[in-house]
Amino acid sequence: MQNSATSFSEQILEGIPEQLPPVKPYDNSINHAPVRKDILNKEEKKLALQNALRYFDKKHHKVLIEEFKTELDTYGRIYMYRFRPDYKMYARPIDEYPAKTKQAAAIMLMIQNNLDYAVAQHPHELITYGGNGGVFSNWAQYRLTMKYLAEMNDEQTLVMYSGHPMGLFPSHKEAPRVVVTNGMMIPNYSKPDDWEKFNALGVTQYGQMTAGSYMYIGPQGIVHGTTITVLNGFRKIGKSPKGNLFVTSGLGGMSGAQPKAGNIAGCITVCAEVNPKITQVRLDQGWINEKITDIDLLVKRVNQAKAKKEVVSIAYLGNIIDVWEKFDEANIHIDLGSDQTSLHNPWAGGYYPADVSFEDANIMMAEQPELFKEKVQESLRRHAKAINKHTEKGTYFFDYGNAFLLEASRAGADIMNNNPTLGREFKYPSYVQDIMGPMCFDYGFGPFRWVCASGKPEDLQKTDEIACQVLEEIIKNSPEEIQQQMADNIQWIKGAQENKLVVGSQARILYADAEGRMKIAEAFNNAIENGDIGYVILGRDHHDVSGTDSPYRETSNIYDGSRFTADMAIHNVIGDSFRGATWVSIHNGGGVGWGEVINGGFGMVLDGSMEAHKRLKQMLFWDVNNGISRRSWARNEGAIFAIKRAMENEPNLKVTLPNYVDDALLNGL
Length: 669
Description:
It comes from Winogradskyella litorisediminis. Residues 89-215 form the Urocanase N-terminal domain. Helix 12 (358-367) packs across helix 13 (369-391). The protein has 22 helices and 19 strands. By secondary structure, the protein is an alpha/beta fold. Mean pLDDT is 94; it is low at 1-5. The strands form 4 sheets. Strands 3, 4, 5, 14, 15, 16, 17, 18 and 19 form a 9-stranded mixed β-sheet that branches. Strands 8-9-7-6-10-11 form a 6-stranded parallel β-sheet, sandwiched between helices. A hairpin with a 2-residue loop joins strand 3 and strand 4 (164-170).
């Protein structure tokens, strides 16, 4: 394997090699994406091959066409495995990248972090998380993109079409260095099978959220949000987490954060997962404490943990339905319940049916897709039935934004509200509806994150200390309405180092409002200018105040009828692009499904300059307050409070506020 800085640089600058590299053997030790169903007809398969071969000189077509045909027939996609680089995939210190501009080098760093074997769910298929959240569709796209970034100057912008690097275009220094779109389909072509078809053709991809926008930081990215959700879930039911039980499922990608968050919150967590490889990875990483494969032993262990009021996370290697049913039979009380399997992707590995082995399910998925769909829907009905038994005994169940309730409803499960109101169609709430929306998003608090581009742990520690100091200063004058949010985040950042949250890049996440984000970023920029730390890359999850329009998750607590619109996400990315973001992205898809959400993100490089100082203030203010203003117009009380406060502090902000209609007038109609 080539690991020297020189050979790494040469391979980056080479892009798509002139001579074919040797065929690489299929590595069974890697967690691979499931085989996709055979959806293309004969003519479409020819088109898929034409599309793939256009990346290569004609002299190689005779060899590659057979190879790519075999990949398409075997895996349902053309990944171009032969072109996987020989160097190790990880986020290198920014100075190791062969680039003409540090902004481009920062993007290269983030791309490689998304594909780090410790971070990515299916690294050889370029999938970061969620079963189908791709950074690119094939290795030619990766190689060409990295070459363009290495060649780019600060008056060019790289345009990305769903994983395909369209090219470098003239722009200017203040323009984004990269503009990314993923899966932006004509609305009538956003059904699940449309993704299967057009992705197999190589013309679009599912970028999820931070996967296709190069801003994923490993499961840490959702640990904080999950910790807040679990803490407030217990607050909601009037219980301490200590000695009480949280049951959920999913350990791949972002869902792997759940047991770690349970430990930080201080409860007993049982998380079921059917994939043995990813379960072992999470055990090796320390994100779970124990692994159990026998359901009776699981019952015994949970009873023991309850009796001793332990703080422990237990992975059950098996189907979550067995856990819900067995705990009902054994009369184990579940305090909080949820699910974070990838039900946005139910027919292609996001959710596995009960009573079918993991291996057999993967075969059925590819060879008998209709039978697989029947089995999944049958399991969803059974899953919901088991949950209903527990909620009748007092369990608080919430949908964790993975489309569980939506897909269960489509399967005919007993999951609908007997007395539905607008936005409350289901028996159970989305966690955004009851916790994250009214407590965090409406007030402008969301998942602000940063990466230390030097790769030095000591830089991360310094940024943690800076962020903590900033928040402790802000909280002194914070209004009562946001004191709890501030206190939770100060507690989080103080424990960040000891919780060992870093997987991949030296990154951190922290829920902050616009004031917090701007002041933390400003303090970072000053520290860079003073030489205390190296460059810092700012970003956020798309799962935030303004970035995402998603009627069953991010905007599920919007009740004025506009939750199915996507104006906010589009305005967000446009506004970020001309206010100083280093790169911007807009996607169809995300955690709740293809065609179910539009979401946008950004990255911003801080280099200690006055220009960065100006950009961070303009962009971060807009990036948050765009969403608060939309939420205030929907008559969300927290958002009305927050936007009025923002207008008091910024004279150039003037937002249209709603007038309330007397209920007596409405009731008289």
